[in-house]
Structure prediction request, 1255 residues.
Amino acid sequence: MPEFEVHKPQSVAEALSLRSSLPDAMYIAGGTDLLPNLKHHLHAPKHLVSLAAVQGFVGIERSDDGTLRIGAGTPLQMVADSTAVRLAAPALAMAAGLVAGPQHRNMGTLGGNVMLDTRCLFYNQTHHWRSALGFCLKKEGTWCHVVGSKATCVAAQSSDTVPALVVLGARLAVDDGAQREIPLEDLYAQDGRFEEAHSLPAHALITAIIVPPQPPGHRSVYRKVRTREAVDFPQVGVAIAAAFDGPLVTALSACVGAVLPKPRVLKGFESGLGTALDDATIEALAEAAFKQVRPQRNIHGDPAWRRHMVRVEVRRALQELRSTGRAS
Amino acid sequence: MTPLIKLNASSPHESARKHVSGAARYVDDLPAPQGMLHGFAVASPHAHAKIVSRDGTRARALPGVHAVLFAADVPGSNHIGPVVHDEDLLADATAQCVGHAVAVVVAESRDIAREAAALVDVVYEVLPAILTIEESIAAKAFLGSPHHMARGDVDAALASAAIVIKATARNPAQDHFYLETHAALAIPEEGGNWLIYSSTQHPTEVQGEVASVLGLPRNAVVVEVPRLGGGFGGKESQASQIACWAALGAHVTGRPVKVWLDREQDMTHTGKRHPFRTDYEAGFDADGRLTALRARVYADAGFSLDLSQAINDRALFHLDNAYYVPNVDFQNFTCKTNLLSNTAFRGFGGPQGMVVIEDAMQRAAERLGKDPNVFRVASFYGDAPRNVTPYGMRVDQPRAARLWEELSASSDYATRSAAIAAHNATSSVVKRGLGFMPVKFGISFTATLLNQAGALVLVYADGSVQMNHGGIEMGQGLHTKMLAIAGDELGVPASAVRAMDTATDKVPNTSATAASSGSDLNGWAVRNACAEIRQRMAVVAAEVLGVPAAALVFADGQVGAPGGPSMPFAKLANTCWVRRISLSSTGFYATPDLAYDREKGFGRPFFYFAWGASVVEVEVNALTGEHRVVRADLLQDVGKSLVPSIDLGQVEGAFVQGVGWLTMEECLYDKRGRFVTHGPSTYKIPTIGDVPADLRVHLLENVEQDGTIHGSKAVGEPPLMLGIGVVSALRQAIGAFASPGHEIELALPATPEAVLRAIMDVRARSAAGAPSLHG
Amino acid sequence: MNDELVVAIEVNGETVRRLVPASRTLLEFLRVDLGLTGSKHGCDVGDCGACTVLVDGVARLSCITLAVEVRGPVRTIEGVPADDPIVAAFDRHLASQCGYCTPGFVMNLIGVREDGGAPDEEALRNALGSNLCRCTGYTRILDAAKDALGQG
Prediction:
């Protein structure tokens, strides 16, 4: 692990000021992503600005209009267990509960999961391993070994919660000296390089994740493909949010994660509106999803199989949404 | 509370209390000796490269660095290797694989050593590399010497066979992933002597290699092993290089040096289970009996011989598995590649051999649309003349038929099989399969000379006992069994006996704790040592108690004649001391009756066979290839179990490890020979959520074995192969998605991707218009 | 840079102070600075669970926790009494073989217990999902967990 100093600001303002004034500084929240990456010498910060002691960073508030405001430092397990989240934004609770393993969820925060570094078989390796390849486009190199190009890094955005937050229309409360809100979707870029993958200025701090009130009859689901029952990052993650009026769909959006640097919002799902998600509709939507998503050999698992699983999991997610309604 | 360990009774692990309290120490837990430094190896980034130059100047300039060592700094021999010394401890002229150590950096801390390692300047000239078995075959880059076994007339048998299967079977590699990574601590002692703590299954080999590297006689080096956090074969030959790096660093700096590998180093410096490719032809008669098997067996040895020849030989010895094959022609080739040097892993080639004949069984059944067990049962070893292995060894007490009978009854095989058929007939997406796997595994090192063991038992004047033997406790419960044997022999509670850390200054010239032989060999040695002391003590007791020595019974801490006078064991020990009677003894054992002629491919390499069987039920999803083991029933022949609780644990753990190998664990190398899946997030061993919810494990009863220690049989490796039953089950389920009559092409490990491809493939062959993964 | 700083943590009921680099992980702090070697280095990147300790009653991976970031009392395997029901259940069910993963499992289960409730088998499998064991096949660990946490 590189040597660094750790600073423990008590407030957002102090954190921002430290992060801006210190050279080679990084934020650290739960550390479940950052520390393994530091051990792999993917970064060599001289200063870590810890967010652990920042006031008001942890907690879930539900306002009268149904908006959820989740402090960026809220542990994932707290998000998964929160009744407010489970009721208002089921896909988020599901996704948070499927991250890695229980200890990771005790430690890792929602803000950290949103800011998760993109992952790739050619990147999440030791320094020695990467140096043997002449490094890669994501870090220290100029060539992407996955697609054989110099143009774009295709490391996968591997957060479980991000696809769920996207379909829930989440916004981020951001503070970079000025406070503002941005759509969560806008955070992610097409390029997976560390400096490029997130559109915010490096010193900006996400202070909260805001999930707006969902339309009446909201249902949502997150489904994760992984090799094992625990530990693993997603090989594909599918989130779908819908609203139902009786049996009929009044809102529908879907997002696929763990494919490319940017979570993929699926197009054409408006064709499901007004239907009762009959089998033919589900099949057409699953097929549409399959056509839009092209996994690369960037993370564990056969890309053709992962692509196939997009179709399967979209189908399963839609069936689940349909039957959740029947049950309730 | 002292754990109660008793022979032939379920007992706790002797270290259980220490495990659960965190008190159990492993090499990396030992307190750091004064002035200890840390060693860190610099690994070659190339699979095959000439080393043009090497320069440690920049690394040495880093504060805290004490030494940067290259091949030229080795005072003795730079060549290591368990059978032939064909590996450079530190790559000299050429680096032979990615991960081959080129230099060792010694520094104040591991972090500094690691930082300095990146500053060691090595200039390489990249050479062409062999990265696959096929490339190795094409280049005829074979190591060792081929082994050949033949009997009967294979050509004639195949010509007259009712069905002939011609196929290539492949098995994947497997990383050991013991939870404790490799570690060694080398401590210079006075007079130029050495104490080495090593996480090794083979302290004698570490002793020999360290002595050779330092140019010393073996008596200058003591190797001690507290316990291992798992070994599984991965710490048999592979531990030597780590210990030698530490010893070399300590030799040059004059200070203790520890080398501890983190997980990624462990996985990129050390070899795996060998992947094999076997091209075979198998013939069956109209009743489903195997009549012939011809096999050309190719093992991917990696860059050096290591134990590959013996592993490949054991694969040949297990091509027959539990089946009598009248006509055979087996030949193996040990293929050099520029990859990590593959090594021992639980089963030691046996699983790789069995995968082949099970593949033949499955294919024959699949082609004919029959139950594969018809072929298996018809082909079992039985009475003469169907009781002789391809290498001429008689199979006494063949157990496959009995295992099938008992296990099919206890697992309710027929009923479940019918239920599964009914389920599969109506369920279109999810199909089930019920697999059966018999196992016959030869027990003994196939290199006959290794079948020896020693012990040293010391009785103190207060009646307490120290027991040393040559075996390593790595979780398998060896010490527990040895304590049970010693306690039984001396007639004292096992709690009065202390199992000492294994050390080469107590028992010399030991064999590795491997080949499932730990308790067979060391058990006899311990028993013999105890018996010798008991005999001496009995003479004294006879005088004191006034009864004939022959009438004395040693039991429950008392020595006496039944119904007659007796005295406490402790009091007798003191009396012996007072009377100047020796209370310590060595014990020795060499397995009798072994004789194998490798040139002729004929003889008796094994003392006996361990048998077992599994029935495994799986569920497969045709949409995704996802699958899970619904239930597994295991029945293992361990003879008369020394400690049943320990044996049951071995069976469970080995089965899960076998299933992991065949369904989940992927060793991937990139195009340049770099091991890609070298971390815990990319190399996936089963988690608790991945193991069968319903696992039923039993030991075969009334099977006391002649001539073995207390009638027991070995248990370490054989049950791993019970995991092969999952392949049989998966193939049945996959086949249910198509019309009968098609052989299944299932790649191993059978990940969901592989299973889905197999389903699509068989569907495509059985009906037009089936979907493909790209459709 | 590379400045050492004083870390004061309550470990197993006793407050300890040590001068360490800021990059010191809690696992190294326990093992190297305090000599508490019961918590194990299984993978060093938070993927095996062998380093699990409790911080403020919650199971955490000490190999990816910075010592300076610890807020709250730490409990390690050395602080677990021998008569703890979870320890006793591991003993009774022969839930350890090589023992290297055992402290992590025990600490994780203590965390589950402190969380309250009587988890069923599925909940226990989930709770133990990121603790790897290579020896046992997990069955006896699960038996011990069920026994100790009220589902036996």
